[in-house]
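Hello support,

Our group uses your service weekly, and this is the first time we've seen a run hang past the timeout. The protein is Pyruvate dehydrogenase E1 component subunit alpha. I'm not sure whether the cause is the sequence or the server load. Input pasted verbatim:
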Amino acid sequence: MFNENELTFTQVKMLDEEGNIIGNPTITTSDEQLREMYEWMKKARILDQKLLRLQRQGRLGTYAPLSGQEAAQVGSAYALTKEDWVAPSYRDHAASMVHGLPLEQIISYSKGHLYGGKIPEGLRILPVQIIIAAQTLHATGIAYSSKYKGENSVAITYFGDGATSQGDFHEALNFASVFKLPVIFFCQNNQYAISVPLERQMASKTIAQKAVAYGMTGVQVDGNDILAVHEVTKEAIERARNGEGPTLIEAVTYRFGPHTTSDDPTRYRSEEEVKQWSQQKDPLIRLRKYLENKGLWDETKDNQLEESFNDELNELIDVIESKQIPTVDEAFDYVYENKHDLLVEQQEEAKRFLANGGGE
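Update from on-call engineer: The timeout came from a worker crash unrelated to the input. Re-ran successfully.
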């Protein structure tokens, strides 16, 4: 008889909240790589705060903030190569940035620009997926294709704890495990599926243990510890490339802000809880303390990075906002490579609507 009490997962953690190494872990990242990962995290935080302010000013559509989850995204995406694939959700622009998605695309998409979802040629990343857990199926399909073609690429897909309650998630894990596909299921457990806390979503003690039912490796990691996230992702990638199949990674983290800008988190989260995570467990502060302790970072470098990146963002936003807003009829040019007759008819109808005074 299966004893659920014996099913335990020890959370992987290498860096404590004060930036000190825990125990004697194997750290394969160089000092330069750690500085670069911190810079990515800092840029992601600055971008997130900038886009949130733009939304409040009416210059951006509904937006899903990521602050608090930078270590989970940057640490994992940094372990990939350019031959690997990323299947993101709507909150994963830090991972997308690291993998090579231009800032212009991220900002344009957030502003609802027609061309914001266009992926540059040669970049192995899928457009943002807003259907919860659907990207897990897409990543599984990509991994199946890679294995079928004899390629050495790995697919990683990002999703939240709420996605694990969706059927697509379970179908993806089942298919990937049966065929031992090179795919990593990276769950950012930020404690809430919009307003629904984790304990109302599942009775299992961890999300990582769900891997057991599908015969794959499951790992729970401190999602605010970028060293640990990077190492467990590297190990999962190595297993995938060696033909050992998929891995489910549960990165335990927290979103500091709302689910989206249409959400009011004060209705379901206490101020004390938010302060505990944002003040004591901030992933940026943790890595910065570690770098400062090693003499690799200081206040001057931090201020310089913030100033230069803010300047870059401001210039880019000015360029994007100066562009002419695409009209509805232009969207029909990007449905299929070759438009069929019905699509042409619909596009012409849209043009007539605009010509007769319809909105953009």
